């Protein structure tokens, strides 16, 4: 059912885009080809948003807190990837000192896997530490206090990055060769876009299986439903919440890594915008709903890409925000969510 | 935090009594302050403003910078006091987290720039625009709040965050109307009833700012004790119970949002008329964040604490940090001379905000009521809370 919706969405977006591009005399000749390329772009950026959105939605689902720092964990992940694989950022030198594409496929896979294997646990630990130090003391207390604290933590992370790495764009190594392209229905599409999509979907599949099939996953679902009752049933609630943060952080780290491959730069205020868009994705899909967050991420990718395809790149953020407001007005529960308004 | 609730109740009850047994003049002042709060605000603002004005020409102030620079800084601080008082209505009174407050500040500023600048070829009266800026900000506040305030509070935080991010982008992108990054320059200085504000001497701005702050303080205090102020407190403490008691939660929250935006509109107009330039960078997220830090530090819900917090934090930001840099560099203090405190300012604010939220969420100058709410988790039992009645002064144990 859900995969069918997703595929339907992609096809629908392709036709809409082809139609709109066909209206413009400059792009009319190659409208389907350009549309395919844009769809591939939208899917890879959507996959990144979806990975970040998962962290928002899982944390919100389990403790009803908007973890404002999550976008900045993603940013930290992107920097960690640069520090590990690249030439470094700010005054901190890189470890592997890669700066350009790695043409040897086996070596490339090793590098990418190694980067993910280093970055994901680190961002997981970062997010876990944030939860332990800053959010846990507030559990069971007022709602406003942890929310304000979360904003503060986000600000701290951003400024730590500013102090460590400086402001402005820092080069991220695009180790995946951008010259690798495949021919898809007459359009030449970067392989990287497809690889990002595959990495993201694989991680999502692992997550989904984990949440649905394992004991810890069941504990997570139980805690999200009712903390008190799960405690009575022998679930270690604190540990489960910590685990949720760790998983969310690891996914954000993966998103940060592939962000660097795709865009070739990292900046200390990256997390703010990406976080906002990813949270919008989570709301769009129905907050607390893992599949919804993924769908939402792709929808936001499409919306942003659509604005860019029309030559309105500067208004992309505006259109995402309008989407957020419209969803909250007409369907606050999101595409797949339950009625959130009444759960308060 | 560790004090037992009963002890706390004792403390609260005794505080006003303690004041009454004091010396005669102290009693008279406190009686006067209780009976005529608005006059107290006017008088203390007047005394404070005059004192600060003249004192800034003498040590220790004169060691740092000239009197005119101080006065100019105090006017800027006044802008932040207004912002903090306005945000305090939303966050402190109604308990709603607004993270895009700078957007309303921007509306006030841009309205003034549209109404009184060579760019727009309009030169409307200052007072008209002051009111106009507030009205426009309030309208946007309602437009933003109406769809989102029906939902739970967390959504408001994220929508306002998005709004605060989008508004400067819109002003930046709509180059035709706002001159984009360059901003609208050469904005008129205020002209009130024929008195033209001079550019260099900031005294007129200072007086105007003191008057506006005093008026807003009076209004805010009156709001706090009014029917709607009590409704805000009820919603903040328990929205469901408030609704069950007949409070229309949506319109009440909307009122908080609109009134908060109004104050930001005032601040925007005043700021634009002082700087005589309006550009999108003045309204970035940092502004919203700093104002939030100010009210958290000062004491959420307590207008006096918030105003003091804003004043102090502004001066730390604009004077102290720069001064620290200069001092350490001049004295060649090892390590410290290499630290750029201005660069670290937002990091320091973030840390201060988080530490305050964790260890003293009621702020440095708390409102009694807010303190009890924020420590409700420690007190646990509702019986203890009942002992500490809202009007602490009336409790006799």
Tell me about this structure:
Chain A has 344 residues and is mainly alpha-helical. Helices cover 70% and strands 5% of the residues of chain A. Chain A is built from 12 helices and 6 strands. A two-stranded antiparallel sheet of chain A has the order 1-2. In chain A, helix 3 packs parallel to helix 5 (144-165). The relative contact order of chain A is 0.19. Residues 339-344 of chain A have low confidence and may be disordered. Chain B is built from 19 helices and 6 strands. In chain B, helix 5 (67-93) crosses helix 14 (285-298), helix 6 runs antiparallel to helix 7 (126-148) and helix 7 (126-148) runs antiparallel to helix 13. Chain B is globular. Chain B has a domain at 69-282. In chain B, the strands form 3 sheets. Chain B has a two-stranded antiparallel sheet with strand order 1-2. Chain B has a two-stranded antiparallel ribbon with strand order 3-6. A two-stranded antiparallel sheet of chain B has the order 4-5. Chain B is mainly α and 397 residues long. Residues 1-20 and 380-397 of chain B have low confidence and may be disordered.
- The secondary-structure element order of chain A is HHHEEHHEEEHHHHEHHH
Query: How much of the polypeptide of chain A forms β-strand, as a percent range?
Result: under 5%
Structural class of chain A: mainly alpha
Number of domains of chain A: 1
Indicate the mean pLDDT of chain A. Answer: 87
Total count of strands of chain B: 6
Question: Judging from the principal axes of the Cα atoms, what is the shape of chain B?
Answer: globular
Strand order of the largest sheet of chain A: 1-2
Low-confidence stretches of chain A: 339-344
Helical stretch tally of chain B = 19
As a whole number of angstroms, the C-alpha radius of gyration of chain A is 20 Å
Helix percentage of chain B: over 70%
Strand content of chain B: under 5%
Q: Helix content range of the residues of chain A, please?
A: over 70%
N- and C-termini, Cα separation of chain B: 22 Å
Task: Name the chain pair with the biggest interface and residue counts per chain.
Answer: A-B, 48 and 46 residues
Oligomer: heterodimer
Topology of chain B as a string of helices (H) and strands (E): HHHHHHEEHHHEEEHHHHEHHHHHH
């Amino acid at each position: 059912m859900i995969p069918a919706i997703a595929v339907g969405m992609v096809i629908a977006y392709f036709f809409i885009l082809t139609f709109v591009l066909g209206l413009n005399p400059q792009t009319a000749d190659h409208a389907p080809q350009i549309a395919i390329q844009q769809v591939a772009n939208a899917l890879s950026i959507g996959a990144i948003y979806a990975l970040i959105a998962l962290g928002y939605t899982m944390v919100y689902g389990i403790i009803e807190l908007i973890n404002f720092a999550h976008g900045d964990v993603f940013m930290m992940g992107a920097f960690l990837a640069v520090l590990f694989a690249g030439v470094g950022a700010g005054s901190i030198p890189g470890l592997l000192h890669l700066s350009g594409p790695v043409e040897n496929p086996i070596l490339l896979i090793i590098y990418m896997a190694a980067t993910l294997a280093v970055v994901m646990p680190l961002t997981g630990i970062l997010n876990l530490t944030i939860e332990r130090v800053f959010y846990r003391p507030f559990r069971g207390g007022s709602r406003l206090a942890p929310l304000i604290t979360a904003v503060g933590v986000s600000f701290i992370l951003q400024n730590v990055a500013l102090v460590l790495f400086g402001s402005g764009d820092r080069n991220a190594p695009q180790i995946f060769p951008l010259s690798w392209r495949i021919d898809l229905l007459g359009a030449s599409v970067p392989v990287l876009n497809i690889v990002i999509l595959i990495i993201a979907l694989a991680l999502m599949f692992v997550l989904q299986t984990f949440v649905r099939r394992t004991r810890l996953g069941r504990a997570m679902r139980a805690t999200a439903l009712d903390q008190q009752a799960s405690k009575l049933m022998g679930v270690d609630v604190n540990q489960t919440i910590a685990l949720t943060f760790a998983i969310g952080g690891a996914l954000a780290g993966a998103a940060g890594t592939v962000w660097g491959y795709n865009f070739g730069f990292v900046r200390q205020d990256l997390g703010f915008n990406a976080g906002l868009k990813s949270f919008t994705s989570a709301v769009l899909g129905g907050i607390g709903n893992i599949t919804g967050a993924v769908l939402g991420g792709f929808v936001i990718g499409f919306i942003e890409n659509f604005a860019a395809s029309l030559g309105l790149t500067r208004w992309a953020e505006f259109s995402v925000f309008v989407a957020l407001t419209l969803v909250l007005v007409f369907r606050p529960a999101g595409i797949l969510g339950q009625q959130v308004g009444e759960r308060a | 935090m560790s004090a037992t609730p009963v002890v706390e109740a004792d403390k609260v009850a005794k505080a006003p009594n303690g004041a009454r047994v004091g010396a005669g003049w102290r009693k008279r002042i406190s009686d006067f302050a209780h009976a005529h709060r608005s006059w107290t605000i006017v008088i203390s603002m007047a005394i404070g403003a005059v004192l600060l004005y003249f004192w800034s020409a003498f040590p220790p102030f004169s060691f740092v910078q000239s009197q005119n620079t101080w006065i100019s800084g105090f006017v800027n601080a006044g802008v932040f006091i207004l912002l903090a008082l306005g945000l305090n209505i939303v966050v402190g009174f109604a308990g709603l987290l607004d993270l895009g407050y700078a957007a309303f500040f921007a509306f006030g500023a841009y309205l003034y720039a549209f109404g009184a600048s060579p760019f727009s070829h309009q030169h409307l009266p200052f007072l008209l625009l002051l009111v106009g800026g507030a009205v426009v900000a309030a309208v946007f506040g309602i437009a933003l709040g109406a769809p989102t305030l029906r939902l739970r509070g967390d959504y408001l935080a994220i929508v306002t965050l998005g709004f605060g991010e989008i508004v400067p982008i819109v002003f930046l992108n709509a180059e035709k109307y706002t001159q984009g990054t360059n901003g609208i320059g050469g904005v008129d200085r205020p002209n009130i009833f024929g008195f033209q504000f001079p550019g260099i001497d900031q005294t007129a701005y200072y007086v105007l700012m003191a008057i506006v702050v005093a008026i807003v303080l009076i209004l805010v205090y009156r709001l706090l004790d009014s029917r709607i102020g009590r409704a805000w407190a009820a919603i903040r403490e328990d929205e469901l119970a408030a609704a069950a008691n007949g409070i229309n939660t949506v319109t009440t929250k909307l009122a908080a949002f609109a009134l908060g935006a109004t104050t930001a509109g005032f601040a925007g107009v005043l700021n634009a008329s002082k700087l005589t330039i309006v550009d999108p960078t003045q309204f970035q997220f940092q502004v919203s964040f700093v104002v939030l830090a100010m009210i958290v530090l000062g004491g959420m819900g307590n207008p006096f604490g918030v105003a003091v917090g804003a004043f102090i934090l502004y001066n730390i930001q604009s004077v102290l940090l720069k001064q620290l840099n200069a001092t350490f560099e001049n004295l060649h203090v090892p390590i410290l001379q290499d630290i750029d405190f201005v660069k670290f300012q937002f990091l320091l604010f973030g840390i201060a905000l988080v530490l305050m939220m964790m260890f003293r969420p009621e702020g440095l100058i708390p409102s009694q009521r807010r303190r009890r709410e924020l420590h409700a988790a420690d007190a646990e039992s509702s019986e203890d809370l009942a002992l500490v009645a809202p009007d602490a002064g009336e409790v006799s144990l």
